[in-house]
Design goal:
The chain is an all-alpha fold and 80 residues long. The chain has one domain. Helices cover 42% and strands 0% of the residues. It contains two helices and no strands. The longest helix is centred in the middle third of the chain and has 17 residues. The chain is elongated, with a radius of gyration of 13 Å. 15% of the residues are buried. The mean pLDDT is 80.
């Protein structure tokens, strides 16, 4: 049986990051979310109006790292 999960991110606030990195961060989030939910049993999911994906130091964080960590925070927030 195939199950489908739809995740809609209405707003992603990237305060302090170079605007040129926005797509790389978004793509990293999409890749990690896809990976996490592909290996998940999809039980115990919830709807969340707001999930805090964490705080990163913009000057030192690479877009891939920020996106991956944000996706993991989103996954944890939906799993709670």
């Amino acid at each position: 049986m195939s199950r489908r999960v739809e995740i809609q991110i209405d707003e992603l606030v990237l305060d302090g990051f170079n605007w040129r990195e926005r797509y790389a961060i978004g793509e990293a989030i999409e890749r990690e979310i896809t990976r996490l939910f592909a290996s998940d049993r999809l039980q115990g999911l919830r709807t969340a109006a707001h999930i805090d994906a964490g705080v990163f130091k913009a000057a030192s964080a690479k877009p891939q790292v920020v996106g991956t960590e944000a996706a993991r925070a989103i996954h944890r927030g939906i799993r709670q």
